[in-house]
Design brief:
Layout (H helix, E strand, L loop, with lengths): L1 H14 L9 H11 L5 H12 L5 H13 L9 H13 L4 H9 L2 H9 L6
């Protein structure tokens, strides 16, 4: 805590300068860390933690909604790993079907693992 307080004391003048007044918070901290004469290790950790907190839970709600539609009464025998894999594909891939098909055809390691029935690992 002492280190964090010392770092804040060093940058307090920069934060309250007129140059920082019209900036959004993320712009303000980008300028701060680029102008700092010392590494500001503790302040970086706190900033990274604060900026990693989502401002809403809409993404989480969307994933739960997708899970509900994937794991419906007609598909109630699916195990957790299958639903997890399906959700990961739906959430993380934004390709059209034809684009994804072409992309998969070019991945020789994945095609070979699929033919052997093994799980794909990097």
């Amino acid at each position: 805590m002492d280190g964090l307080y010392e770092e804040y004391g060093m940058v307090e003048a920069i934060l309250s300068s007129s140059e920082m007044e019209g900036c959004h918070s993320e712009e303000r901290y980008l300028k701060l860390f680029s102008k700092a004469e010392v590494p500001l290790v503790n302040l970086r950790k706190v900033s990274a933690y604060i900026f990693s907190i989502p401002c809403s839970n809409a993404h989480t709600e969307r994933v739960f909604s997708m899970m509900t539609s994937a794991w419906r009464n007609e598909r109630n025998r699916l195990d957790v790993d299958s639903v997890k894999a399906e959700l990961q594909i739906c959430v993380n891939f934004t390709f059209e079907c034809t684009d994804m098909y072409q992309r998969l055809l070019t991945n020789k390691k994945l095609l070979e693992a699929a033919r052997k029935g093994q799980k794909y690992r990097k």
